[in-house]
Amino acid sequence: MNQGGMDCTSHYGGYHMSGRGMRRLTVFVGEQSPREVDLGQFHKEYISFGRSPDNDLVLPSPNVSKHHGFFRLTANGVYVEDLNSTNGLLFNGTRVASGLLREGDILRIDDERRSVTSGVLFFFNTSSEHHSWKKREMGKAGELLIGREQRCDVVLNHVSVSKRHASIVREGDAFFVVDHSSTNGTFVNGRRVQGRKPLKEKDVLRIVDTRLIFANGCLYYCSYKRGLGIEAVHLVRTVKNKGETFNICNDVSLSIEPGELVAIIGGSGAGKTTLMNAICGYNRPTSGQVLINGEELYDTYDALKNIIGYVPQQDIVYDNLTLFSMLDYAAKLRLPDDMSEQERRQRVHQVIDIVELKGKENTMIRQLSGGQKKRASIAVELLSDPTLFFLDEPASGLDPGTERNLMRTLKNMTNTGKTVVLVTHSTLNLQVCDKIVFMGRGGNLCFYGNTREAEEFFHVDNLVDVYNMMTEDPMRWKSLYNQKAQRERKGGGYKEVHSRQSYSKKAKSKHSRLRQTGILSSRYLQLLINDRQRLAMVLLQAPILALLISLVKNGYQFERYDITKSLLFALSCSAFWIGMLNAIQEVCKERAILRREYMTGLHLGAYITSKLLVLGVLCLVQSLLLIGVFWLTVGIPEEGLFLPPFLEMFLTAFLTAFSATAMGLFASSLFKNPDRAMTAAPILLMPQILFSGLLFKLKGVTTVLSWFTICRWSVEGFGSSANLNGLEYTVEVNGEIQEFPHEAEAFFEFTKAHIAQDWFLLVVFVAVFCILSGLVLRSVKK
Ligand SMILES: Nc1ncnc2c1ncn2[C@@H]1O[C@H](COP(=O)(O)OP(=O)(O)OP(=O)(O)O)[C@@H](O)[C@H]1O
């Protein structure tokens, strides 16, 4: 065999290689039914394939050369090499000369431009569990329906699959795949199907956890019931701090087998979370690749997100909901739209059972213990039945008993086919893990293997001792580990030649925005109502402020210019303040939840609209109370411009509070923490006082600044309703009130057009701040 094309220089760093277990190929040749081939059955290192009968794997297809190539079985994995064949080996449409096969890889021997019936397709898997391919023939049927519903032709039993998810449709000799507006999408060769797409021979489809291959008018499909494998290849994450650039994840490569429980441990600040975030799709590394069963995670995220669960360090549950409502809302947001209420409730009860919180369904989350709260966060992520599950410090703050139970629960999950990766500080229960990753300062991988191997490697009886050893000299351990890994590697060293499949990144979950807005609004309303103390305070603010204003009236309000103007300015500032306080902490306090939900398909538009709707209702009630009490204690003008005066004043107050709420939402989306957001409140209030044109005469730049203050337009609105220009201006001279003429100010024109313009500008503020919030929140993932 010609091995001249191999590059024998090491390319893989020191990481545990996959492929020591099963090495299985599903081979689709021409019009034949697919064949399962266990490469181990040949009991040899080189397994040749080609058209000629003297090959180990005979592929009777005109597209295949007589001696096309070979597979090489090594301790590191299975390599494939092309023997200068005519049609070569195609990996995702790119011709490759050789390469290491990874779980889930698909190779073709085909026409380079289009797949043909006589082509060959290899599907590679290393799972010890037999991947049984099921087959469904089109036959004479014009349509094959795929979905969760039992009466579909192809039934996919996963909660994230829609009831009627997609169809394969025949029209004459042509075949099409039609996506029935499924929530989580149908992907063909990595691209999300929008409506309908022609199907070619041996096209590869993905629906949630199932791969489907369309060949010879038949659909072959197989679900990942044994979990997913993860390959981290040369991951580097670089950050800048005080002008200096440094690595917080320093060239980490490792391979996690499907169905393993893996713990990432190491000292504080060693880069555990950074590594976890990189391999779970949360933070794209600066360089390197993350492959999930052979597919590039970041390019495929939209197709994979429903089978990836991630529990971050912060809890992703709301304190003011009961456990059941929290999970029910999360299920509504994450599971397919067509799921019946009964199915959804059943799923919620199932996950409550899994995390052992039965009996706590009606308990408020705030009343759960730390460990129970963590379990509630885990339950949220389990709703969509993820095959790959990541947890960042799930055991922090738990007592040893609870921690052990939690680890046992996680181990049980791997027994049901999930791959679980967790970050932990504790070494108490590491023996239940299949592998441990030791991270050393600077984001260095110092060891990867099982606990026994770790004790041998570090020469310790207790892994706690390793923490100090690694703190002292992480680079030494990194280098020793790399040497060890290099010694263990035999042969191999092929170049990484895979050009990974490029997926459409823009495809979003198809949960309808309207439906999401409804669910989010209902959840937000319930959260507000459940926090009775805060709600009472928020509702009391308005009448209290109106009462305080009434203390400074002098009996000439709505008769004399000066006092009326001051009272209306105080009213405007009160409405602004109430609206601003409604919103300024509302986004940042739930940032962790928002971030997670955004990654699972939440539309930011729906999120912002839900906040506006609920806070809008709150502003309505508050404005009613503010103007109501103001009317009772201070009074209102005798007549309005074109509405009854009360209604006009109420509308101006509402629009002021509402635009301040929108401004508050924007400010809240800028900050990561509610306390910091509060510090911005005075900075937002002061310009309203300074530049509204009421206290100070504006000129030059301050005139321009006043255009951007909500209170300017608000006071103009109130002033127009009160016809300020028509009121007398008085000054007290030697104890006597004297009247002075005053120029009519353009601010307070008593015209319908003027007040309409003020209201319109307040609405513009709402729109602008919503758009700005949306733009800022797009970076919530970072
Ligand atoms: N965006 C960032 N900018 C600058 N430094 C960062 C950034 N993110 C993380 N770091 C730094 O990188 C290092 C690794 O952080 P990481 O959170 O991954 O550590 P960790 O091992 O999970 O720590 P802990 O156990 O304390 O949670 C820390 O020193 C942290 O301060």
TrEMBL record:
SUPFAM superfamilies: P-loop containing nucleoside triphosphate hydrolases, SMAD/FHA domain. Keywords: ATP-binding, Membrane, Nucleotide-binding, Transmembrane, Transmembrane helix, Transport. The chain crosses the membrane at residues 535-552, 604-634, 646-667, 679-698, 759-777. This is ABC transporter domain-containing protein. The keyword ATP-binding applies. It comes from Blautia hydrogenotrophica (strain DSM 10507 / JCM 14656 / S5a33). Residues 233-467 form the ABC transporter domain. Residues 47-96, 144-193 form the FHA domain. SMART domains: AAA, FHA. Residues 488-499 have a biased composition (Basic and acidic residues). It is found in: Membrane. One of its GO terms (molecular function) is ATP hydrolysis activity. Residues 488-514 are annotated as: Disordered. GO terms for cellular component: membrane. It is a multi-pass membrane protein. The keyword Membrane applies. It comes from the Bacteria. Residues 503-514 have a biased composition (Basic residues).
